[in-house]
Amino acid sequence: MRIPVLFGLSLLFSTTLADDPEYGSARGKLVIIGGGNAGGTGIMEKFISLGGGPSKKFIIVPTANGNRAADGSVQVYNSSQVIAPWLRMGLKKVHMLHTHNPKIADTEDFVKDLRDADAIWFDGGRQWHIVDSYAGTRTYSEFHKLLDRGGTIGGSSAGATIQGEYLVRGDTAGAQIVMTKEANHQKGFAFLRRSAIDQHINTRNRWDDLIPVIAKYPNLLGIGLSEGTAIIVEGDNFQVMGKAKVAVHDNTRKYQAGEKPYYLLSAGDRYNMKTRRKLQ
Q1: CATH no. of 29-279
Q2: Does the N-terminal or the C-terminal CB of the chain have fewer CB atoms within 10 Å?
């Protein structure tokens, strides 16, 4: 039986205990990268460290790269090719997790590798492929259980956007559509609750693209990530790492006439999402 997905864009269903974080996990960590090359930034090393180090169990999810080939046949991933870059980074126990079929993703056999995993990584591509495979399944539930037990989830590009509550660029017609009308592609996996996450904002001139999202869903925090740049999330706080800027679309702040409705953070900046303030 598929598990209902209970997150809502207007946050009508979002409830937390008084002492729990409102945005991130109480125990787990998130590494959210804006795509591009993160080499030389320390971001990938940080992800591995937060996952417990090279000896821990890492799961790689390549699903965003597509579930169907150009001819319509089922896309087949070569596990050795998917995990090879991670082995070169020194990981000892790394496994690929992929299916195009949500019925398979809802089986006990499919999720067994997730039950004792320490970290999960989502590759880039198109985020709606991840939704089609895993939303509402036992696999989706196990993703959240990993965070609940103190694990780490990371991802880049589409693997970043899927971590938000609202799914930016979820339209199957193309990534140029920021807000889809496809009802089944409007919701992310809400690892970072109350957020909408965009990526590649510096190289694809997407600085302003979250403005209509936050206008429609003013309770959300918009986070636009440059390439080679990440936020490292612990609870309600994050720290910026990498080469460029993060645009924070914050509807609670008053802006001057003619001013863009967002502000920029740089590497090393620390930010509290609950108070919407930089930390000193």
Answers
A1: 3.40.50.880
A2: C
